[in-house]
Specification:
alpha/beta, six-stranded parallel β-sheet, three-stranded mixed β-sheet, 12% strand, binds zinc ion
Length: 363
């Protein structure tokens, strides 16, 4: 028998209009001044101004750092950290999708522990909890608003560093679907496919537990039911809300069961070519699951059933093709990239990889 731990923020607000509840909760913490970590498009859309006004009406003082890139870098973290220290902020609010959340985690972690973000690459490298972090989410995909994962691109090495640290878990996560209505269809599709990949990789992980299994399968079912609707009509609040729940459930699964080769390769592909994370995952997902099916056919069949696939259809296709076929047909829009050829990927620019050791659980 092995023991397991389950990580999740202590408080998680969900549902249309919950941003107002979040403002009250933030006020109750009694902190002095927040650094809001976000990106320029959200400033231009007026969302950052609206959140600042709401917080000001609750007596919460804020300052904005909007220098987060789509794949946040070590420089983004250093720049935000300087602004936090220069202005004597005592807590951090991330506002946006995975990139602002990850950058904010980096800033808050280094603010409390010193050094640079590179010092914390790997598992639980920090000594102290980060500065308090409230994560307000505007996408349905990465689940970074509730995980202990922080992915930062090291520009010098062209790699994405994975910082997996219990101290990066936010104290409060906020998923208000009303903040997700303006998300374009391409981003909705990419982040939704990221969430699906989280659920699939967590379910076939060697450290999956009955708790993470339940979260993963429910996430797969919700994504199968609602992602296409959210892509087709971004103002469908119910679809946005169901996708918010789905990506949160997928986050609960992978935050504790971890991920697999899709993410291992997608992070390097995205870091090297600066490509959207969800797109990299979607392109790689069918290939890796076709490989995994050699040892995890039963688990992949569970996922197919959660997607609404008829068991007979799953059983009668050739086994290796089966997993590929199911995941290759997931992208919710015909404009979605379907292969490395459409991502300007050049295999020869990568050095040869060492032999792989299986991290997929056998049935
Ligand atoms: Zn991901």
């Amino acid at each position: 028998m092995t023991t397991t731990a389950f990580f999740i923020p202590p408080v998680n607000l969900m549902g249309a209009g919950c941003l107002r509840d979040a403002a009250k909760a933030i006020q109750s913490y009694g902190f002095r001044k927040a650094l809001i970590v976000t990106d320029l498009p959200l400033v231009r859309l007026g969302l950052v101004g609206n959140v600042r006004d709401l917080l000001a009406s609750h007596g919460v003082d804020t300052l904005v750092f909007h220098g987060v890139q789509p794949n946040p870098t070590t420089k983004n973290v250093a720049d935000g950290l300087k602004q936090l220290r220069d202005n004597d902020c005592d807590f951090v609010i991330s506002l946006g999708g995975g990139s602002p959340h990850d950058c904010a985690k980096g800033i808050a972690l280094v603010a409390a522990n010193g050094g640079t973000i590179k010092d914390y690459e790997g598992l639980d490298q920090s000594a102290k909890p980060q500065l308090p972090l409230v994560a307000i989410n505007t996408t349905a995909g990465t689940a970074s608003e509730m995980t202990r994962f922080c992915i930062i691109t090291d520009e010098a090495r062209h790699v994405k560093m994975a910082i997996v640290d219990k101290h990066t878990t936010p104290i409060l996560s906020v998923n208000d679907p009303e903040l997700m209505l303006l998300k374009p269809a391409s981003l909705t599709a990419a982040t939704g496919m990221d969430a699906l990949t989280h659920a699939v990789e967590a379910y076939v992980s060697t450290i999956a537990t009955p708790i993470t299994d339940a979260c993963a399968l429910k996430a797969v079912a919700l994504i199968s039911q609602w992602l296409r609707k959210a892509v087709a009509d971004g103002r469908n609040v119910e679809a946005r809300e169901q996708m918010a729940y789905a990506q949160f459930l997928a986050g609960m699964a992978f935050n504790n069961a971890s991920l697999g080769y899709v993410h291992a390769m997608a992070h390097q592909l995205g870091g090297f070519y600066d490509l959207p994370h969800g797109v990299c995952n979607a392109v790689l997902l069918p290939h890796v699951q076709a490989y995994n099916k050699q040892v995890a056919a039963g688990r992949l069949a569970d996922i197919a059933r959660a997607m609404g696939e008829k068991p007979m259809a799953w059983a009668t296709r050739p086994p290796r093709i089966c997993a590929y076929w199911r995941f290759a047909n997931c992208p919710p829009t015909s404009a979605f990239p379907t292969g490395c050829h459409s991502l300007a990927f050049r295999p020869r620019t990568f050095p040869p990889w060492p032999p792989m050791r299986s991290r997929t659980r056998a049935d």
